[in-house]
Specification:
12 helices
């Protein structure tokens, strides 16, 4: 049984920690506020950007899973110290650093996204996220750490709530048969990465030394537009058809006055204004995880949201 340390306990961190426990490992989770212990998981409260304390927390770990991220408005300021602390802790512990990344670093592209694309983002959030991997990769190439990045598209599925484009802003209304609003073109194909597949890919890559030193895309089901996803979700929930209304630029600006998340997403709105398709063929050629079939994703997501909303109502 190995010790693994998971930084962050949002949707991806929680799914990864619990999958590691299912597979018989000892897990320590690091978050700013800490949590009550649960079977197989030790929760530790500390600031992960504190390199000294983080190094102590990861001593003896076989791998560190970086699943935390600063709030979007603070990416430019908070990612550099967090990334430096993660690298320092991984080097001191001799642990593999398995980083959960996203697709912001590529910037706007007009072709399916592959890992060979340059990290050419020009916006502050895209550049901040690209710099995290560039730092870790440079240290890996110098032999100082063992690092790998696993990149996902927009999260979808059970456990995805406030930050998901098909989550808290969509599912409660969809389950009542009410219209939903979306960023960008609701008919543009888009890659949605299923949260359990994110955890499975992270855990698999952690044990594959031949994977380290580069980035990999999480296996993701074929791209479907927001409208197609809403249609499938509503059909499974038997609440459809549900209207999908794109937010106009004026409505988006107004929404941004009240929602910091919407305001910050203006930089990456291009992901929804055009096709945004993930190519994970490189991963699939080397490893075993595959995207969960879309019908299973849809059923599990509807069931999870129904249970969540019912529990909140009681």
């Amino acid at each position: 049984m190995s010790l693994y340390v998971v930084i962050g306990f949002g949707p991806a961190g929680a799914a990864t920690a619990r999958l590691l426990v299912e597979r018989g490992h000892s897990v320590r989770v690091v978050t700013a506020s800490g949590r009550a212990a649960e079977p197989g998981i030790e929760h530790l409260a500390l600031d992960a950007s504190d390199a000294v304390r983080l190094t102590e927390a990861v001593r003896g770990a076989a791998a560190i899973f970086s699943c935390a991220a600063p709030p979007l408005p603070r990416w430019a300021a908070d990612w550099p110290p967090l990334a430096s602390a993660l690298c320092a802790a991984a080097e001191a512990a001799g642990a593999a650093l398995v980083m959960l990344g996203n697709l912001y670093g590529y910037g706007p592209v007009d072709r399916p996204l592959t890992e060979e694309l340059p990290l050419a983002a020009t916006g502050p959030k895209g550049r901040a996220r690209a710099a995290v991997w560039e730092q870790a990769q440079a240290l890996h190439e110098r032999g100082r750490i063992k690092a790998v990045e696993v990149r996902a598209s927009d999260f979808f599925g059970p456990g995805v709530t406030d930050g998901g484009h098909l989550a808290a802003r969509v599912m409660p209304r969809l389950l009542r048969g009410k219209p939903v609003s979306t960023l960008g073109d609701p008919n543009a194909p888009h890659g949605w990465t299923y949260l359990p597949d994110v955890a499975r890919a992270l855990v698999e890559i952690a044990g594959e030394e031949r994977a380290w030193g580069r980035a990999w895309h999480v296996p993701t089901a074929p791209a479907l537009s927001v409208r197609e996803m809403v249609d499938r979700l509503a059909a499974r929930a038997k609440t459809g058809p549900v209207a999908v209304r794109p937010l106009s630029p004026a409505a988006l600006g107004l929404a941004g006055l009240f929602s910091p998340l919407i305001r910050e997403l203006r930089e990456t709105r291009y992901q929804f204004d055009r096709p945004f398709v993930v190519d994970a063929s490189a991963y699939e050629a080397e490893f075993t995880v595959r995207a969960t079939p879309i019908d299973e994703q849809i059923s599990a997501t509807v069931d999870w949201w129904r249970a969540r909303l019912a529990a909140a109502a009681n």
